Recover the amino acids of this structure.
């Protein structure tokens, strides 16, 4: 069976704010092959990712993503890896290509899982799926008290792990950051996992990051995430050498397997966080999970959007029992909540990857129709892309 | 003075082939501030880079590039670095952003140089510009004889260095590659620099690459370029440990300073090749040049397009006398040749960076008008971009 069509659906909230909240828009991807279909989701900047699918060819290794996907054979999981290699080669000089392909690749797994009646994690070789400890992901409050209240409400809702991040953390005084961290710990209680996300705020300034280590240790933080630009390996490794019980975490922006494994090999991260919606999909994320597991590095998903993205991001490490922590978007936008009918439910503070064909969730296109955008891209009057969704067919 | 407008001009040859010839299309950028203007060029996939400029905001750190540029102050070189930091922060999750910003940043330097009456290399702190030894960059011929003839004609034209690459190199037998390399050396003569570009063909297979080392050494190759995926540092370092007199080269795809310096620190490249049209412009390329120079690693430009791109790519190392080799696009497309009025001429096999305000070349918009494309991008009927060029104004 060949890939008959790839359709994109760009949706956003009526108002998109400056908050670091990635659930405010989405680019959903529907792939059809014969009578089967599958769905995936691309992380960030829908219009740019659509453009990378339809852009005219610049030269032999700067081809649009579409040209490596439409019409290709899709009979087995090997075909997904084969198509991924085509994209990597043919779109070598097209920087956005991995983000575009991520949603497509996820949809290919979903489609194949549905066709074969298996959850994706089983197609990846897993025998059973193990429960994860989801952490509630939230932004720091404007005040320490707001942070305390928000973390406490997550703890009250059954979360044993909470991540706080962004806001003004790292930009003001060391004392103000210490107050925020203490408040988060107080809200969480003494037992829970406290995770902290610095959002690259110190660029590559190890001294600035190290000033926060005492407060991070005092608050019993499990990790400090993205202290620096993701490719500043030396800064990461220097901080990791001084951070004691606090592990360094990172990887969400990785757009290739090597970009993630280099964080393990050269940046000394103790937690590698992978977004299947960016790295090129589920296959590359699984390669990173296996690499991490072999080196006793914890694999963690990065997910700040929908339940569809959450289910996709759990597949690579669903069958790894020792990799327990997972990110769980606690307060996604109304749009993100409406994307799927079912959802992954918390049971006793744990989350079990779904045991259902594909990703195990159905996309509710009618529910999100009010949020969909008409996109038109044309060159010299010739439409490359037009309408609420794009029927890329070959 | 503020940045009043940023306009893009997308042009391509009437027919764009599958050859690895990056001069088949272009995305030119014109920036205006007060009565001054400057020009730059983005490498690869014009439509995608335009989309990254105008795309709606996804969230606080996934903003369109336009929002960090339009209306910003531009009084000194520090403003260029400040704007670059804004783009890096505000477009953190927008993968294509560095490619889009590269052309803008180059135009900012050109504009500032024209305003101040100085060549860009002097604004970068250089006292004088030193001549470079340009290498003629070409693809392997379909046969060894074709390669010999093509290299010989470059040598006859005065080139003392030639780079051959792509074609079927690395994909067929080791003997066939050896024949090609011997032919290239024969065409060049015994004295010239012979450079070889593998175009990532061995992915991360060190053994496959190492099989070609004897022939590379026999042909006296100065470097083997991009043997692997650019982030496969370990593979690079392993090959570098075995490659004797043949240095490993790479870096053209670097889209941040760290991505380039990591190649020096972890991949053991002996030559770091930077495309100012991809890495984020001239400022980041200068940072890499300084980093390389301090470590006795040769900085080399990557340029396969126009003379405008060539002039931009020479600025970061124009004032470094010991960094001699530079890439020179030997047979750019008709379009690429028409972009500028003047050009950098070879004198006794050497190329001297221009000593004229800005980049020292004027863009001939009328000459390339037949190649320009009308681009339209609209969302829900609202045009984000329309016309032969885009007047992004604030």
């Amino acid at each position: 069976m060949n890939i008959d069509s790839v359709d994109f659906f760009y949706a956003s909230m009526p108002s998109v704010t400056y908050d670091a909240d990635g659930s405010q828009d989405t680019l959903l991807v529907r792939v059809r092959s014969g009578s089967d279909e599958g769905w995936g989701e691309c992380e960030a900047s829908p219009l740019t990712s659509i453009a990378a699918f339809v852009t005219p060819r610049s030269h032999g290794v700067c081809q649009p993503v579409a040209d490596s996907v439409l019409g290709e054979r899709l009979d087995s999981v090997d075909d997904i890896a084969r198509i991924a290699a085509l994209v990597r080669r043919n779109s070598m000089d097209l920087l956005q290509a991995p983000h575009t392909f991520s949603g497509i690749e996820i949809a290919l797994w979903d489609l194949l899982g549905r066709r074969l009646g298996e959850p994706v994690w089983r197609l990846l070789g897993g025998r059973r799926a193990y429960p994860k400890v989801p952490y509630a992901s939230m932004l720091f409050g404007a005040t320490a008290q707001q942070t305390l209240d928000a973390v406490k409400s997550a703890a009250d809702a059954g979360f044993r792990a909470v991540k706080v991040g962004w806001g003004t953390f790292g930009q003001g005084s060391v004392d103000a950051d210490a107050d925020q961290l203490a408040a988060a710990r107080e809200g969480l209680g003494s037992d829970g996992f406290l995770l902290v996300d610095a959002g690259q705020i110190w660029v590559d300034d190890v001294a600035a990051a190290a000033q926060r280590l005492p407060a991070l240790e005092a608050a019993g933080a499990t990790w400090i995430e993205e202290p620096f630009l993701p490719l500043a390996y030396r800064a990461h490794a220097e901080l990791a050498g001084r951070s004691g019980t606090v592990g360094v975490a990172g990887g969400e922006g990785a757009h290739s397997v090597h970009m993630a494994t280099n964080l393990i090999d050269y940046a000394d991260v103790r937690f590698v966080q992978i977004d299947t919606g960016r790295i090129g999909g589920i296959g590359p994320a699984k390669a990173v999970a296996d690499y991490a597991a072999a080196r006793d590095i914890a694999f963690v998903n990065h997910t700040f959007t929908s339940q569809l993205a959450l289910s996709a991001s759990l597949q690579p490490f669903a069958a790894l029992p020792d990799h327990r922590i997972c990110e769980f978007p606690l307060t996604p936008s109304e749009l993100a909540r409406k994307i799927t009918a079912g959802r992954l439910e918390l049971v006793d503070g744990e989350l079990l990857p779904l045991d259902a064909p594909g990703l195990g969730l159905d996309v509710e296109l009618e529910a999100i129709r009010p949020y969909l955008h008409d996109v038109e891209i044309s060159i010299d009057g010739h439409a490359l892309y037009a309408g609420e969704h794009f029927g890329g067919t070959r």
Chain A touches chain B through 65 residues (CB under 8 Å).
